[in-house]
Structures are given as C-alpha cells and as structure tokens.
C-alpha cells in the first residue's frame, strides 16, 4: 500500500476513534450496546399506534426513525439495533428517568412541570384540549359539564387540568379515569361518561375509528394549547442536540409538512380513516422557527 494512502487511512481511523471516545451520556451507552431503545404508544392515533400486524406506525414514529438515522451517523453505528418498548401515560416519564428507554416519541406534552424531570425535543405538533360528546347530548361547553361525568385518560395533562378546574371552580363534575384513550372513549360510548376531555387530535382519532363516527362531535372552546415533543433523558445535551437538529431539518425542508399531511389530512392505516385536521397557525409558526418551548410559560 502506498505510504500516502496508508497515512490517510490511519488518520481517518484515528479521527473515528477520537469521535467515539468523545461520546458521552446516553449516546456513549447506545454506541456501547449497539442498541437504541424507543418508547412508543400502542393506541395514540395518529402519533404512535399499532397497525393490523401490530407494527408500530404513526407521525411520531416516523420522526423517531429519522432521529435514529441521524444517531447512527453521529456515533458511527450503521448497524445500530432498534428495540421497541410500549409505554403509557403513567410510566413513560419513569422509564426515561431510570434508563429503560432512550427516547420516547408518542403524543407527550412538553410542559414546565415535566421539564423538571425529563428533557424535550423541539416541538413536533401543537394540540388543544376540547370535549368529545355524543351528537345528541346537551353538552356544548365546559359550563355544560356541571352534574355530569367526564372521561379522561390517567396520567395526562388533560387529567391534571380537569382536576385543577374542578377544585378551583368547586364544580360538581365527576371524573372517570381509564388507562388509555381507547378505554376513555369506551366510557363515553357505553354511557359511563357524558363527555371525553382530551387533546383534539386524540378525540378526532377516536371519533374517526368509532363504529358510528357521526354519532359523536368535538365541541367546546379549547381549554389549553399544548406542545407535543419527543421525550429525552434530563440533562443529556448531546442526545437532545441530535433530536433537535433532526426535527428542525424536517420542519424547514418540507418533509415535516409532508409527514403532517400523511398522518393528519389523508387516509391512514389500518382502517383508512382521515382525521381531517389542517395544520394550525401555531404549528405553522413552529415549523417556521423550530423550538422546544412549552406552551404553559
């Protein structure tokens, strides 16, 4: 081998070795085990959910896979394995904190309280909380909930908001909780609750997948606006930087808009439902200037 070629190869090898040694925190751990562990939601349409073959699909899942691609390049691990672990609203923060999962891209809200426990990526979606009711009900606003039972999913910001609302207003509203969104909708469907309070995109997906979608309406003025983001270990700046760069590129080069159209404005698997949720002005602003700001500042 010519001397110059050999020297170049040695320099390249030294550079790669130095880069690998420079890795810290979770990126170093991911590199060492040659595996990244992703947390996903099982039924959070259209963010992260199962298709008919129990394959995880969705808007957030597509973004997570883009982040994984970038991590592979950043740490020099083209053969990096991806392990998937289901999470729910009750355990997702703990599983990030104890190191069980490296990254969670589902439908998790970035707010100030949670930011004390975990870090969040740049915002990937913006949602608002509203009510899902039966079309023939007399519920059209929060004022109409007095004396009624309201379904909510345990461990969500919607549950926290509703409990705070009841306490502050001394409102005669009964809460019925469920482990996931599908079970919360079932409480509405079967009459155990008169309304389901949650993010509007979740409500739209539950309505669209119902046996008789026209029997339900999304109603009431938005109570909160929330930034949806991927969740990361607290204080791991290197991993967060990779996630943020990936999301910023998606949102500014047109691919993010295409992803949004695919999952929120087009028929999606497994039943071909179309949520028909145009991109809001708030999300358009995020795509123009990607950031990780919560909306409860």
Automatic annotation (TrEMBL):
Swiss-Prot/TrEMBL keywords: Signal, Transport
Question: May I ask which residue range the UniProt record assigns to the signal sequence?
Answer: 1-20
Keyword set includes Signal: yes
Looking up Pfam families in the UniProt record yields:
SBP_bac_3
InterPro entries (alphabetical): Bact_solute-bind_prot3 (IPR051455), Solute-binding_3/MltF_N (IPR001638)
Q: Where is the Solute-binding protein family 3/N-terminal domain?
A: 35-267
| Family, similarity comment | Belongs to the bacterial solute-binding protein 3 family.
Q: What is this protein called?
A: Transporter substrate-binding domain-containing protein
